Every structure is written in C-alpha cells, then in structure tokens.
Amino acid sequence: MDSINFSQIAVLLAQGLLISALMLLLFWLRKVMGIGMLFAALGLFQFMQVFLSSSLYVNITDSIIVSPGSSLLFTATIFSILIIYIKEDAIVTRKVVYAVVTANLVMILLIYSFSFNSFDTDIAILKNNFSNFFHTNAWIYFIGTVMLFIDSVLLIFLYEYISGKFKNVFLRICITMILILSLDALLFSLGAFFHSDKLKEILISGLISKFVISIYYSVIFSIYLKVFEKDVYISKQPTFQEIFHSLTYKQKFQKSKETAEINEKRFQTLTDMSPVGIFVTDGNGKTEYVNPSWCKISGLTKENAMDDGWFDAVHPKDRIKLQKGWKNAVGKKEASYAEYRFVKPDGSISWVLGQAIPQYTSDKLTGYIGTTTDITKIKLFEIELQKTKEKAEENERLKTAFLNNISHEIRTPMNGILGFAKLLNKPSLTEDETSSFVQMIEESSERLLNIINNIINISEIESKRTDINISEININEITEMISEKHKKNCEEKRIHLILNNGLNNNDSNIKTDKIKFTAILSNLVRNAIKFTNKGTVEFGYNKNDDYLNFYVKDTGIGISDTRLKTIFDPFSQAEIDSINAYDGAGLGLSISKSYIELLGGTIHVSSIVGEGSNFTFTLPYYRSNFD
After folding, report:
1. pTM, rounded to two decimals
2. Mind listing the domains of the chain with CATH numbers?
3. Which end of the chain is less congested by CB atoms within 10 angstroms, N or C?
4. Sign of the C-alpha dihedral, residues 253, 257, 262, 268?
C-alpha cells in the first residue's frame, strides 16, 4: 500500500486557503476599487501556472503526483469566474473570460517566439531548463487555454442547470466544479500528455487532485457567499450569445425590434385589460388607437373613433367647447383635462373625465396618450346631491314662510278671543250679542287649538316619535260625527255636504288608530269645504277586498299641476299667494299623508283647476285577530 505524504497535503491545503483568500479579498474589494485588480490577479495566476506546470510536481503517494499550478491556480481561476457570474452578470463574466484567454494567448505567443533564441551557455542546468520550458510549455499552455475557454462556457450552463435541481448553494457550486474540473483533467491530460508514458498516472492524479480541491474550494467559496454576499441569487439561464458573443449591428437592431415587439404586446395586454378607457393620438391630436374599455364607454367602434370621428359621439351641448379646448391644448402642446358627455347609440348618456398628456421623443412631440374615465355614477350622485340641497333649501324657505304665516294664524284667533272677551265685560249687551260673542270665542279657540295640534303632530312626525294606538272603532259613527260637525259651516257657505258610507253599522267595525283616522278624514273634509265656494263636498268609503277605499271630493277651486307635486309637503301652502286668503297653516295634508302611511295605506289626489279635487286613500280592513 502506498504511503501518504500528509505534510505535503497540509502544505497544499494551506496554499489553497491562501490563494482562495486572496481571490475572495480582491473580489470583495471590487465594490471599492473595481474589478480590475481581480483581472490582474487572474492574469498573474496564468503566468505562475506556466512555470509551476513545467517545474513543480509533488508526490502525495508513490503513485499520485500533483501540480500545484494546475490543481490550485487553474482551479482557483475557474472558481473565480463562477463567483463573478453568480454575483455580477453575464457581461462582466464575458469580460473576465476574454481577459484571461487573451492574456494566455499573448503569453503563448511570447513563449513560442522566445523558443527561437539560441541557448548557448556553459551552465548545463540553465540550458536544459530553458530549452525544456520554451519548447514544451507553449503547447501545454495552448491546450490549457483552450480548456479554460471550454470550461468557462460549460461552467455557466451547467451551473444554471444544477441550480434548477438543488437549492443549496454549496451543492450547486460543488457539483458544478467537480463535473467541470473532472472533464478538464480528462481532456487536458489527453491533449497535453498524449505521447507520455505516464499518461495514465497523470490522468488519475489530475482527477483525484481536482476532485479534492473542488470540494475544498466549494466549502471556502460557499462560506464567503453565505457570510459576505448575503443577497439571494436568481437564476438567469443565459444564452451563449449573451455571454460570449458580441452582437453585430444587425443583431442589435433585431434585438431592439424584438424588445419593442415585446413592449408593444405588453402595452396591448395592459390596455385591453384596463377598466379605464385609453386612447393614443398623433402629434396633431388625431386619434390613432382606443382600447376596448374606451369603446364600451363611448359606444363607438374603433374604426369610427379614429381621427376626429370620436367627436360624433360627444353630446351636442358639449361638442363645440370640447373641440375648442382640445385644439387649444394640442396647439400649445399642453396637457388636456375635460368633463363631457357621450351619447351612445341606444340614447343613454355617459359622463366622462378625459385626460391626455403629450409624449415626446428627442424633444419632439410625437402624440398624446390619455384616459377616459366613466364618472356617470359620480355625476348622477352630484346631481342628486344638488337636488337634495335645493330641496333642503326650499324646505328651509318654506319653514320660514310657514313661521311667518303661523304667526298670523295664531294672532288672528287670539285677537278674536281677546277682543270678544273684552266685549263681554260690557253690561249693556243683549242676550243675542252675548251668545254671538261666546260663539265667536269658541270658534277662535277651536281654530287656535287645531293650529297648535297640527304643529305638535308635524313635530312628532318629523322627529319619528309618532305612536300608534290601535283600538276597535266604528267607521260610520266617525264619518257621521264629522259630517254633523261641518254641516253648519256648509250651510253658511251654501254648499251641499254629502256622506256615503259603504258598509252597514255591523260591518263598519275595524281596528285602527281612532285619533289618527279621525284627524285624517277631518283634515280632508275641512280642506274641501275651505276651498269650495259653491257646489258640493262629498265624502265616504267602500270596501275592496282587504282594504277600505275612502274619498273626499269637491267642486272647489281645484289644484294646479305644479302644486300637485308638492301638495303633501309640509308648509307647502305657505308659498302659494293665490290661497293666502284662506285660513290654515298648510300642515293638514302632510299630517294626513304621514298618518295614512303609518296605518298601512296610501293616498292619492287628482284635480282640475276651476272644477274641483278628489282625494282618495286606503286603509287595511282589519276586523279581528289584529296583529
């Protein structure tokens, strides 16, 4: 069994540690001093390798010999190329490989040229060494240079392939280097020493030494990457051209064309997927492209939108202003912002916000790119908000008018009460005068009480604090009571009051809120009498399935179409000058509508000015088992 030279192994490992530490230090200093020093070191390694390969071999065992130049320096060069590729990029890697290969070729040329010199010397040792160096190493060095280039090419592709199989950095580096350097040892030995009698010994020694050094360097370089270069490596999967081939002008043009096509496809995909309308124009503002969302918003096809065709879809009231603004923006080469409307083929209208910014190439305006955003919902909300605001302002105005009116409505009965009360103090009054004054006080008090009740009721309704008290009532009794109450007033105005009950007394018992039902019917009858100067006032009801249909119709002054829209709004009577001659605060109809809805019914009105009005409302017909 061969004896192992452990001391020589220790020396080789120490030398390998020194070489790898030097390489990694120079690589780390690239961030401060650039990568030039690493280039110089790799060139120096190639020079040292030439001398060591021809002059220094050491025995590890009786049958294994190792060349420090090949095993340590060449392997360190391959490792350096790999770590440069991992931490830099393909371009820097290509520069390193070109630099090292070029340095080797220059050295080969110089060595070969010096071989023509005459080595006439009396010192036999020098003569033999010089002759051996120049004649032998030029060929060995040439084979080594070819292998260096082949190793560099295969190194990167093999590393990328192994990276797809293993995630561990050490395994990636170690497996890659073992395979590359084993192939190198095989091909280099066959190429450089094919005539040697010790080819087999050289081949086995090269395989073993580079296998061991590969593992040794892999450990050192992996530790460096883990500790000093912590950022994550992303697999690049380059092509041969990207690393070792300079592009011609034609190839650069083709590559630029391919890049432009990729960017165009990306732009097309993004615009097709965008929910916002996108358009592109030329330098004169003529449309050249619109995306599907733009067509959906405008209702136009792509063909019809080209040039200035998109203006045809703009609302006629917005078109002239928009054309003028767009022409002005293009003329000044400024950005454009505008709100306008599209009229679609089906007649629907879309509100949009159009924005466009100029695009420049080498300070020359090449066109505009812009967006068209559908803001229909926002505009409708703004319109609705404006209507709500106007309605709130109108309600505020009506409340003010109501307060002015109510002050008059309250003062009038109060003055009547106070005035006739003072007259009652006169001792000379006759019995008829006293009775008349008392009646006037009663009527004024009833009118004042009605106004106060209405104010309280509308306040409860607006604050949503109205309570419902359900009880069993007889409709006929209430309608007859209301008829009797207003009979005298109708006689004084010389109008006929007609009551039509649709059910007999036994069937007219229902469950509802008595106070609110009485208020509803009383308000409607009172209003009918108030605005009728001749003819009739008729009210009553009939049964229709599970509902009772009530009506109050008159032959009075009628209601205009404009007023019909707000007839049930609170305080609406205060704004009508033509009816200021009639008493009332304008709350009765609003209260009646609210009460009817609370009791589960609806109210409607129809009217013709000068002929009269007809109020109808429904209430559920609950007779028993009311829930």
Report:
1. 0.38
2. 6-244 (no CATH), 274-374 (3.30.450.20), 406-620 (3.30.565.10)
3. C
4. positive
